[in-house]
Fold each of these.
Amino acid sequence: MKSSIKHQGEIRGNAIRKRLDKVVGLGQRTYTPSELAVDRAKGCNIYTVDGKRLIDFTSGVLVANLGHAHAGFEKRCKQYTAALPRNAYNMVTAIEAEAAERVIKSLSYPRAQKLLWAASGSEGIQKAMWAALHRHPDRPIMVATRGGFHGKKGLAGDVTGDKSVNRNVKFISFPMKDVKPKAFYQAELDELAKKYADRIALLITEPYLGAKGSFHPPKWYHKMLQRWCRKHDIAFIFDEVQACHGRTGNMYAFESYGVEPDLVVLGKGLGNGEPAAAAVGRADLVDALHYGEASDTFSGNPRACAAVCATFDVFKSERVVANCQRMAPIMLEGLLALKDRFSFVKDIRGEGLVYGVEIADPGTANRCVLEAYRGNGKAGVHFLGPLAEKVLRVSPPLIITEKEVANAFGIIEKTWARI
Ligand SMILES: Cc1ncc(COP(=O)(O)O)c(C=O)c1O
């Protein structure tokens, strides 16, 4: 299978796409109508090989919270690793200890005691789930919230979506557009507890349904799940792979939703682009896994750990979470103005600096991505391909300024007027 993406006048970009088509499988890419060919990136700007500048409304995929090529971050990364090897399998390093201590300290609640590193979000999810399953080998049942995205691999894939090939996975409802009364969700939980008494090991959920199209639940929802888990001694696993490190306006989304999970899974923004993820939480769960049961080649390597520390440094020195809080209402105002102006914008959902912009239909949603990319002459705005077919994800680096947001909306308004 080949991609048909080509853009008029992009001599260099089209040549790269053509080369990749020959040697890399299409399955490697997530469909994005623009598929921009990047030359370099700095701060909130991405420059294409054909000389266009795009304001990044994606942060990679919610990864580069500090923006691209952040000088302070890069410098600190180098300082932390100095002469260390890139891989320290079967070795230990001080930087790993420091990174783990800082992650645990940053969560700052009693259940955050120990962690397992991973090299991707789905691996972190898998390790969290293994920990809960190993803690209670007599409990095979896993409860997950319907419509979630936890990754494509292994157990993370099993608890993703609406149905599972794994017969031990049972889904419960997550509040989406029509939020039902509390009693509805409670009844689902109670029915499961009755049917699978003492056989449920874990409940896994996301703070908000990201990939499903940005559905952010009422504050009582996660508290209800946590209460139920505590009552039945079920491990409450919170998937913050996407939401961690400031996205929702707090350092962690569990703070935004007022819960203290048994295990929190961190990814994406944890290393600001370096492959770092972690499952963090109760020591009795983490310690249910013995030598080798959660080890692999890349997890917790020195550079990933250095990136974790450097990310914390910059979050502190530049008060990144405070900037996110300051920019959140400005971003929301801009998005609501788009809704007023364009009849094809149907809904805006989100918090902090993570929003979903629901467009009337998939064709128009793709067109929105493309027109913003084509931009005005030399400048455009970069969006991910639509989620759930017609929801645009807006998730710029958390260091974005008011001026950059205004510039981006200026471009979007002009370019979407062509639709
Ligand atoms: C909430 C959530 N969980 C898990 C994952 C999987 O992470 P990865 O792609 O790093 O395996 C993602 C990735 O988008 C995610 O958004």
Amino acid sequence: MVKIFTNCSERTITKFDKLIEKEGQVEKSIELDLEAEFSSLALDIIGLGVFNYDFGSVTKESPVIKAVYGTLFEAEHRSTFYIPYWKLPLARWMVPRQRKFHDDLKVINDCLDGLIKNAKETRQEADVENLQQRDYSSLKDVSLLRFLVDMRGADVDDRQLRDDLMTMLIAGHETTAAVLTWAAFLLAQNPSKMRKAQAEVDSLLGQQKMTLECLKRLE
Ligand code: HEM
């Protein structure tokens, strides 16, 4: 999966590079909404890592991406609202935001159902030991969905599978984006720590240090 992380990060770096190149020509300071950028990056990574679906949100907008952000917004609302009014019998039809939520959910569910169907059709049954021995570096699809379908058998419940994937999407998206955003914010304020972090990244990833160079210019 590290390949997925690297490929997606490179897309973000290319986007930053282009912006720096463009803005650099007119010699003005560069403004970048890192929270939005890291959210897109995290969404692309979690999509590919969990269900082998490329949201491509770093470079474009799509109805599925909008629906994902809509449901994440609603999840946040529900986790902080005191009265669970959405459980009332007619709420999902009467309350506009609940109607929108159910519309968004349908878009995502349809997308996930298609991916689950496809994973099941191309299923290669294996037990945990076989799955652990697999040469993942040669596989095109290393997603969690592929793993779960291959391991759990043909009769795995689609609803359960879809809910598990949704859990991963929600748990893994905003958390990661928030960590990246705050880390970037704090590093930008601490040049010596930035250099230390950069040295560590360089020692691990060789020449791929553009992200930190971009951040330095945003200090
Ligand atoms: C830096 C990023 C992340 C942070 C800061 C983070 C933080 C947390 C925290 C604090 C909990 C415990 C919540 C509680 O029990 O009250 C948790 C649980 C969980 N996280 Fe993460 N998480 C991150 C990334 C991820 C990712 C990438 C995934 C999945 C792909 C994920 C999946 C889960 C799941 C499934 C649980 C529930 C575990 C359980 O209770 O059985 N998280 N996470």
